[in-house]
Design brief:
2 domains; alpha+beta; about 350 residues; twelve-stranded mixed β-sheet
Length: about 350
């Protein structure tokens, strides 16, 4: 599978590839996803074992309690899945798109093409979500879909393009081949997984920190100057995001704020420690790491349908951490960091 994300202006925001296995009898699947999103490269993994979904994120994207490696979600609880994530979750079941094409009643036969040594027929249509009787989690949008079907009625290629208001366009092409291969898919053991609801309940570890090299020390004034520059850039970046006005725009806003906060944490943690106030600097960095984790979990909650009360509880905990960080920032002379934290 290949995919790309375009901003509303048409510029490439990210791209990537995924390769995996699917057992169409059981609905199980697993995939390794390589991505480059705004220059942030990484590898993630997804295992679908209905009704549960397991995510393995790069550590910098999400720290899990107890050093766990996999995030577990119950499929039946994903009522608030967004368009892009629904596509990610259901790339394993191309038959849904064939049913959707039939339901539109206006399928266009494009022609024939040979894929993987097999002759296929290429069909195209625009799916109208209102006319398709399948769960909204599977097909939550209206947009163009192309499928390539072999003489046996098996889908060999699927291409989707989805435009989301205020966010841009997601394009995804999935090739299916090597049918009949013996597939063994095993979910990760419980000892390596954390339930998504645990994070929503507030059990949030701090984000990982890359500390400066051993013995690196600067003066207090020099450290404050550099810290103010870093936090000032973060504050400026957040202010340029503008105020989101739609649900999808709010999710995009949260994603951008998380990215900015992760950058800020990395830059501050890499500064040489200020002489004489090292412990206060260390506490500040760890508080920012904790706040970044709350932002990351808040982003997950916005994607996977966290309740209003859960999100409010996470916000209150983040505000407590933020307030402590503000006080330390002011004592260290890093007033821009206090302003930035308060703005987030």
């Amino acid at each position: 599978m290949t995919y790309s994300f375009l901003s509303p202006s048409g510029s490439v925001e990210g791209h990537g590839t995924a390769r995996g296995l699917v057992d169409f009898r059981t609905g199980q699947s697993e995939a390794q996803i390589r991505f480059d999103f705004r220059g942030d490269m990484g590898v993630a993994a997804v295992i679908l074992d209905p009704p549960e979904v397991y995510y393995h994120y790069p550590p910098a994207w999400l720290a899990l309690p107890g050093g766990k490696e996999w995030l577990r979600l119950d499929w039946n609880s994903l009522a608030g899945v967004t368009t892009s994530d629904a596509l990610t979750l259901r790339w394993d079941d191309p038959s849904q798109y064939v049913h959707a094409l039939r339901a539109t009643g206006s399928v266009h036969r494009v022609g024939t093409e040979t894929l993987f040594g097999v002759e296929t027929t290429h069909y195209s249509a625009v799916i109208d979500r209102k006319r398709v009787a399948v769960p909204a989690t599977f097909l939550p949008w209206t947009g163009p879909v192309d499928v390539w079907v072999d003489p046996s009625g098996i889908v060999r290629r699927l291409s989707i393009k989805v435009r989301v208001a205020d966010l841009g366009t997601t394009s995804m092409t999935t090739d299916l081949f090597d049918f009949g291969t013996h597939v063994v898919i095993a979910p990760p053991p419980d000892s390596q997984t954390t339930d998504y609801r645990t994070l929503l309940a507030g059990d949030v570890p701090e984000a990982p920190i890359a500390e400066p090299r051993e013995g690196a020390v600067s003066s207090r004034g020099a450290w404050a100057k550099q810290a103010n520059l870093i936090c000032g850039r973060a504050l400026d970046a957040i202010s340029r995001l503008g105020k989101p006005t739609t649900t999808e725009a709010k999710r995009s806003y949260i994603a951008h704020v998380v990215q900015i906060a992760e950058w800020e944490l990395t830059e501050l943690a890499a500064l040489p420690r200020p002489a004489g106030v090292e412990s206060q600097r260390d506490e500040l960095v760890h508080l920012i790491a904790k706040e970044v984790s709350f932002l990351q979990v808040g982003r997950l909650a916005s994607i996977f349908g966290g309740s209003k009360s859960q999100i409010q509880a996470l916000t209150r905990e983040a505000e407590k951490v933020d307030a402590r960080g503000n006080r330390i920032s002011m004592r260290l002379g890093a007033a821009e960091c206090a302003q930035e934290a308060g703005a987030g």
